[in-house]
């Protein structure tokens, strides 16, 4: 298939969305367990989905904020391996945060806190921009080519040729005087 040719595969897209969402919540749970779990008696889904827990007036609220932002950085890294094209980073980030908003509305009501919107908007921007940056950086990386291996393979192929003295039997060889001029000289002439 040619590069740029898009095949519509809805099952792949759904699987990528589910994987990205699950990895995001696993990472969020990891950070919440260290930052918030040490401060509260019981870590519940309230800290994942209730907008009231995201505030700057309490230390626990700041710890929730400090858990959400590294999860966005990790989400950008997950997108690097799950989603193949940089153009799709915005779509997948938006889908993740729209699903998160939907779950938050179901769990705790419409988020009326400006802090919730700022933190999640920042997380969305970080995930999208860092994901695109990492993707473009990976796209422009040099492709490693092992010269030793390829030259060894070439010599092995030359040894398998039936006539091993084919270079001395060539009628012409090219002698290069500079990068712009080359002259054909018959072998054996002075």
Question: What does this protein structure show overall?
Answer:
With 190 residues, the chain is mainly alpha-helical. It is built from six helices and two strands. It has a two-stranded antiparallel sheet with strand order 1-2. Strand 1 and strand 2 form a beta hairpin. Helix 1 packs antiparallel against helix 3, helix 3 packs parallel to helix 5 and helix 4 runs antiparallel to helix 5. It is elongated. The two termini are 53 Å apart. About 7% of the residues have low confidence. Pfam families: SYS1. InterPro entries: Integral_membrane_SYS1-rel.
Question: Which SSEs are present, and which pair or pack?
Answer:
Layout: H1 10-35, H2 46-49, H3 59-82, H4 89-108, H5 114-139, H6 147-159, E1 172-176, E2 182-186
Antiparallel strand pairs: 1-2
Helix pairs in contact: 1-3, 3-5, 4-5
What brief labels describe this structure?
Integral_membrane_SYS1-rel, 6 helices, elongated, two-stranded antiparallel ribbon, mainly alpha, 190 residues, single chain
Structure summarized in a few sentences:
The protein has 190 residues and is mainly α. It has helices at residues 10-35, 46-49, 59-82, 89-108, 114-139, 147-159; strands at 172-176, 182-186. The radius of gyration is 29 Å and the shape is elongated.
């Amino acid at each position: 298939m040619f590069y740029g040719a898009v095949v519509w595969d809805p099952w792949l897209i759904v699987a990528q969305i589910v994987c990205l969402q699950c990895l995001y919540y696993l990472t969020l749970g990891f950070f919440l367990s260290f930052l918030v779990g040490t401060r509260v008696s019981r870590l519940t889904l309230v800290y994942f989905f209730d907008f009231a827990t995201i505030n700057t007036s309490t230390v626990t609220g700041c710890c929730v904020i400090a858990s959400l932002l590294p999860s966005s950085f990790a989400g950008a890294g997950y997108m690097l391996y799950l989603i193949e094209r940089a153009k799709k980073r915005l779509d997948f980030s938006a889908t993740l945060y729209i699903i998160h908003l939907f779950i938050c509305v179901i769990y705790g009501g419409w988020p009326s806190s400006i802090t919730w919107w700022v933190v999640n908007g920042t997380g969305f921007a970080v995930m999208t921009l860092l994901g695109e940056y990492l993707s473009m950086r990976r796209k422009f990386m040099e492709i490693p080519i092992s010269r030793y291996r390829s030259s060894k393979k070439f010599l092995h192929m030359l040894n398998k040729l039936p006539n091993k003295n084919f270079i001395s039997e060539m009628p012409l060889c090219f002698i290069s005087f500079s990068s712009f001029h080359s002259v054909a000289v018959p072998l054996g002439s002075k």
